[in-house]
Amino acid sequence: MSVTRTVDTADADPRRWWGLVIIALAQLMVVLDATIVNIALPSAQRALGMSDGNRQWVITAYTLAFGGLLLLGGRIADLVGRRRTFVIGLIGFATASAIGGAATTPGMLFGARALQGVFAAVLAPSALSLLTTTFTDPKERGKAFGIYGALAGSGAAIGFIVGGLLTEYLNWRWCLYVNVPIALAAVFGALTLLHDTPRHAGARLDVPGVLLGCGGLVAIVYGFSEAEPRGWGDPLVLGLLAGGVALLATFVWWQTRAPVPLLPLHIVKDRNRAGCFLTMGLAVIGMFGLFLFMTYYLQVILGYSPVKTGLAFLPLTASIITGSTQIAARLLPRVPPRALMAPGALLASGGMVILTQLSVDSDYATHILPALLLMGLGMGLIFMPVFSTATAGVAPQDSGVTSATVNTSQQVGGSIGTALLNTVATTSSTAYIAAHLGGGADRTLVTREGIVHGYTVAIWCASGIMLLAGTVAALMVTGRPARYDASASPQVPEPVT
Fold first, then answer.
1. Cβ-count burial of 149 within 10 angstroms (0-12 exposed, 13-18 middle, 19+ buried)?
2. Which residues are bridge partners to 494 per DSSP?
3. Which of 110, 142, 310, 490 has the most CB atoms around its CB within 10 Å?
């Protein structure tokens, strides 16, 4: 007879919630580092003498290494041990941050940011898989993933706030130095509070899979990062994208024949997980593009300071946390994941539609704030169910690589969104300015109007992509509320499908 089983909390680790603090701290550090240097970039560019063409590498070097190497990091977590990988990632991340903060040349900063991305790719999958194996009770697991999803969704916005404060009141270098004490505190907490399962005997690393999979992802992310300055028709961009697709196709073929595959295809063949991965990628395309445009809109068009710009994102952060921890975490044990994800995407898309009405003198309280609140609630409803559903029911030996696949969809989606929507905005702005100059028109005003016009066109595209994310969630994610079955593994809850 099938019965519902709840893990006895008396047998659970009494320090698991403190362990969650450590895991969440590490995840927040990794996520916010993708954006914390954005606001500091003009100061760093002046201090180190970067050219306009090269400054993008401060951002791209991190996301490229992070997104491209996540699958490898996930498999290393499975092979070496999750806590050990977690600690190695923290120490490496802190070291790379210290090198970046002390950078004296642009190349030194670019290299340090790439090294940060490498260790972030090791750290992020082990953090999520540790969370998966630490919380096994369905109710507790919902709360834990709510907190984790809130940090994953709001970390980028928090990065803008912290970056603005550090840049304006200390120095741009502190946007990197700040990681050192955080990482050291997390190392101490991990060694004290977190537990690990033994490494898997006889496990091997799929070297051809590493080269094909990581190479394909790096090529695609690099191609999208070069699309904005070079143009989509540039031979290098087309070659990188085509080469990346070819490498990934070869990777899939090899995974069907590898003795110990890097990414077991049964993970992505599962309809719920595939839907979660695709929903995450599409949602983040829209979200990262919005961050980029709103940062420039607030600073360049409305004249906000770095701190004021960061604080302007605070309602977005608060609403993501509310949607993830207070709404999604409470409802997920009772409703199917898509009943949260699809409405969440609709809310986020509606917030973006409001932003398409921006002008050169829009008011924050009436035009921007309502949109940020809607977007935040929507993203909170998406992130938490995605993380929980994608990692539920995975065999313990595959939890690291599954976690890495979720993070990969997030990072690659962010890179694609930044490149794609920035190209749309730039092209639209150029066309608008060319069409409206002449006849005694005020060049400064037309230029400002053209920039805002480009933003609004790109935000329309982001809104459509967000609706597509909701459609994918509604059609593909068919799982019901997670519960424990008597025959299920005690490691993770198995969703009934």
1. buried
2. 483
3. 310
CA dist 271 and 256 (Å) reads 18
* Helices 57-80, 106-134: crossing angle, 10 deg rounding: 40
Query: pLDDT per residue over 134-186, tens digit each?
Result: 776 666 767 777 777 666 666 666 777 788 888 888 888 998 898 899 889 88
Residue 50: alpha-carbon gap to chain centroid: 27
Tokens (6 digits) for 466: 């967000």
Asked if 56 and 111 touch (Cβ cutoff 8 Å), the reply is: no
Closest alpha carbon to 351 in 325, 327, 381: 381
In whole angstroms, what is the distance from residue 293 CA to residue 459 CA? 8
- The dihedral built from the CA positions of residue 379, 478, 127 and 418, taken in this order, carries a sign that is negative
> Band of the pLDDT at 199, cuts 50, 70, 90?
low
How many independent structural domains does the chain possess?
Answer: 1
Q: Which two tokens stand for residue 223?
A: 């191609």
Domain of 115, CATH number, reads 1.20.1250.20
Helix (H, G, I), strand (E, B) or coil at 309: helix
Span 31-44, average pLDDT: 76
Q: Could you tell me if residue 133 is inside a domain?
A: yes
Reading phi first (left if > 0) and then psi (alpha if -120 to 50, else beta), residue 483 is in beta
Residue 206 lies in a domain: no
Cβ neighbors of 12 (< 8 A, separation 6 or more) are 136, 137, 140
Angle at 381 between CA 375 and CA 387, to 5 degrees: 120
Place of tokens 């954005």: 38
- Phi, psi for residue 270 in degrees, rounded to 5: -65, 125
pLDDT at 23: 81
Among 56, 54, 62, smallest CA distance to 423 is for: 56
| Cβ atoms 28, 56 nearer than 8 A | no
Q: Which residues contact residue 376 at a Cβ distance below 8 angstroms, ignoring those fewer than 6 apart?
A: 154, 315, 316, 317, 318, 319, 320, 322, 323, 351
CA 132 to chain centre: 18
Tokens encoding 295: 């940062």
Q: Which domain holds residue 124?
A: 16-197+262-476
Percent of the chain at pLDDT above 70? 84
Residue 204 lies in a domain: no
Q: Which band of pLDDT confidence, cut at 50, 70 and 90, is reported for residue 3?
A: very low
Contact 77, 126 (CB under 8 A): yes
The pLDDT assigned to 201 comes to 55
Q: Does 457 map to a domain?
A: yes
Whether residue 265 contacts residue 255, with contact meaning beta carbons closer than 8 Å, is answered with yes
Distance between CA 354 and CA 349 in Å, rounded? Answer: 9
DSSP state of 126: H
